[in-house]
Design a protein that fits this description.
Two copies of one chain form a homodimer.
Chain A lengths: L3 H11 L6 H13 L2 H17 L1 E2 L6 E2 L5 H4 L4 E8 L2 H10 L4 E5 L17 H7 L7 E4 L5 H14 L5 E4 L15 H9 L10
Parallel strand pairs in A: 3-4, 3-5, 5-6
Antiparallel strand pairs in A: 1-2
């Protein structure tokens, strides 16, 4: 349909997550209309990030340095480690401003269907971080889906005997949501995790 | 939140049409995880398209050559010109396999709100193409929205006196759609453009 380079560009863009053929075409024509300097800046940003970003030697968060900013920050609470599947989960948690401890990025979740077991994740390195006795709590923040739950269960059994508290993020109704539209497993979890707010005698 | 190059990449990706901050973050981490050769291929495709693609000297379609494939094709009907707003509209029309004539890309539509008048579009060049008397029909295929309709009305008034037939794509119910859910202007157009299918006496 198109001549070579436009077709190539559309094909390359279509491979990115969340971009379908129509979206790729729209972006391709947007780039053809854009200023050359803007397009070069995009291509440079892609190459630069790929070339300079590596993973923190302690927690495996994406960073430009050997040790990431969070691990280096002395003002954070080094007694807590929040375990997440991916670097981007850290952003979501940081945005809440609720947590001041450290992180550990597993690099995914246990998933037999994808042939990914505990040995494929940064679990050994997590256990090593518990060796010096400084850490007193591990917060399991893997995703609330099957793989995330399996991974959380595996980690809690592995870590509990080491004398470190292990907690899991609460599941329940999303704030601002509508009970009527809550999906049944979430609603079930909300019942399971209900909290006494008044009375009750004790 | 992130260190420099990741943040830069996310910011650059967020500027693309149809990509929000979450999508940009997802693509950024996808690229960090991807093979270096794939990432380089993407950056190259972006630069190559930008550097080599230009616009057809006749119809302003995007092309690698001075004259695009469609204008060069002797087997197409050179007596018809279908007028579209953007190069990508040509793809949509070509996909129908209903049309074998030529095209003319205006480069947008008349839009006072965006400060874009007839002089900012390739309208003068369209009129010039009618000069040799080879073209007998102009098909106005600008978008069925306010700007597209204004542009179509402007062009039909401009071209009709030149003795060339001017037609407009039909508006009506989308095939496979449901009358109940048709938006009222579309339904009104469907009535306006109704066709006698049987009887009627003449």
């Amino acid at each position: 349909m198109y001549d070579g380079p436009i077709q190539d560009l559309i094909a390359q863009l279509s491979r990115l997550p969340g971009i379908g053929p129509k979206g790729a075409q729209r972006i391709a024509f947007f780039l053809l209309d854009a200023d050359l300097s803007d397009v070069e800046a995009l291509a440079q940003a892609i190459l630069k990030a790929k070339q300079t970003v590596k993973f923190c030697q302690v927690c495996f968060n994406a960073t430009e340095d050997d040790i990431c900013r969070i691990c280096r920050n002395e003002r954070r609470d080094h007694s807590q480690i929040c375990v997440v599947e991916e670097s981007k989960d850290i952003i979501a948690i940081e945005r809440t401003r609720e947590y001041r401890g450290l992180y550990h990025v597993l690099g995914g979740a246990i998933s037999p269907i994808d042939n990914r077991g505990p040995a494929d994740l940064h679990i050994r390195e997590l256990v090593q971080r518990l060796g010096d006795g400084q850490v007193t709590e591990i917060i399991l923040a893997t995703n609330p889906n099957t793989e995330g739950e399996v991974t959380a269960t595996y980690l809690s059994r592995l870590i509990a005997p080491l004398g470190v508290a292990v907690s899991r993020l609460a599941s329940g109704l999303p704030v601002g949501g509508d009970l009527e539209y809550a999906e049944e497993i979430t609603l079930g979890r909300a019942f399971e995790g209900r909290r006494l707010v008044a009375g009750g005698g004790n």
